[in-house]
Write a structure and sequence with these properties.
Number of strands: 23
Structural class: mainly beta
Order of helices and strands: EEEEEEEEEEEEEEEEEEEEEEE
Shape: elongated
Largest sheet: 6 strands, mixed
Oligomer: single chain
Helix content: under 10%
């Protein structure tokens, strides 16, 4: 089979058109038995692999296919050609790429440390990051001073354009607290130096932004990614937190 593409790269959920031509100069091609599969492996499946039993069939010796994928990554078109003498031949295309955001992590605190992102966490209470450590007491009220909760994981930023931390704001007891603070999103090197950072403020009346993005297009290799919930002021009983089910870290490839 001969496989050509109208382009080799597009955004997720968009279309790459493949033109597949199959022929056999001896017995002729049996197009009713020719099939194709799209997957993320450049290795041949093998002409007798069971995956061909449920593969999509061709209807024409020269056919145009619309290929689309919802997830970021490299994909390959596998074509099984069968002639009238029952000879089979598998052809694997060159790579095509679908570009889009990749979710590096999303979930609750109970899942931290159990994912491939290798999270570590402090200040995890309930379903997310919570600042709930008493600093001192003043006039009968519990006073929180410079209390923090941190979540951290490592990521290889090679070929990534940016990283974005998406969250639904800081949850807190707005009826009985004048607390305030920051949410930090930080890129940290191996020596624990903050090399890129951005932050939003939160307070009794403002929960902070919904996303923060850091450009990493000029960086290569692995870095620590830090999420820091910080309470920097206020008193009275309050437990500000980021709900784990409402935040995620996503990456946009180059």
């Amino acid at each position: 089979a001969t496989i050509t593409f109208d382009k080799t790269e597009t955004d997720v959920n968009q279309i790459i058109q493949a033109t597949v031509t199959q022929n056999d100069l001896e017995s002729g091609i049996d197009i009713t038995k020719c099939k194709y599969i799209v997957n993320q492996s450049s290795d041949k499946l093998g002409e007798e692999h069971t995956s061909w039993n449920t593969a999509t069939a061709f209807t024409q010796a020269t056919e145009t296919l619309d290929i689309t994928q919802a997830n970021n990554g490299l994909y390959y078109l596998h074509v099984l050609s069968v002639d009238n003498a029952e000879n089979k031949l598998e052809t694997v295309s060159t790579a095509i790429r679908f570009k889009g955001k990749m979710t590096l992590w999303q979930g609750n605190a109970a899942q931290l440390g159990s994912t491939n992102a290798n999270w570590t966490i402090s200040g995890a209470v309930g379903n997310g990051l919570m600042v709930g450590t008493y600093g001192s007491n003043y006039n009968g009220y519990s006073y929180y001073r410079k209390a923090t909760a941190v979540s951290k994981f490592r990521v290889n930023v090679t070929d990534l354009k940016n990283l974005t931390f998406e969250f639904n704001g800081v949850n807190r007891d707005t009826n009985n607290s004048d607390a305030s603070g920051k949410v930090w999103f930080v890129i940290v090197d191996n020596a624990t130096n903050w090399i890129r950072s951005t932050s939003v403020n939160w307070s009794k009346t403002a929960s902070g932004g919904s996303s923060m993005t850091i450009n990493v297009s000029d960086l290569q290799g692995e870095y620590n990614v830090l999420i820091r919930l910080e309470r920097t002021g206020g008193y009275r009983e309050s437990t500000p937190y980021l709900a784990g089910s409402s935040f995620k870290v996503v990456a946009l490839p180059m």
